[in-house]
What we know:
3 helices, about 25% strand, Phosphorylase Kinase, domain 1
Amino acid sequence: MNIQAMAGAWRLEGRTLESGWVVLEAVGWDPATGVTSPEYQGSGGNFCKTYRVEKNGKRAFLKAIDLTHPLRQPDVMAALNRLTTEHQLEVTILDLCKGAQLDRIVFALDSGEERLGSDFADLVPYLVFELAEGDVRKTILE
């Protein structure tokens, strides 16, 4: 089994997170192979796995950080630093936008870490976002 298939971020489908979010299904990629759908143009990048989630009847979008991604890079420490910095920056920006009551922002509803086991690959930092309405890219260009 390869390191990607072992990553906790790849194994969330069907789970209920400690925070109460139920992971319904992968979005834009196949959990069995990791292959991204060619038509998927959503968030996530190459270091996240994305899912639809639900809690108390509210549906949302989850970005699960794949901590094993840096382990496959030539400079592991630099890649790990970049991944964690980008994740923390995204959390900070979303908190600032929420505090400023900006109206064209998809808010983060939750963030945290899920542990699926005791290995490093089993740790899954995540962000849960409101579902965006319409074409977000078109809105940004307006």
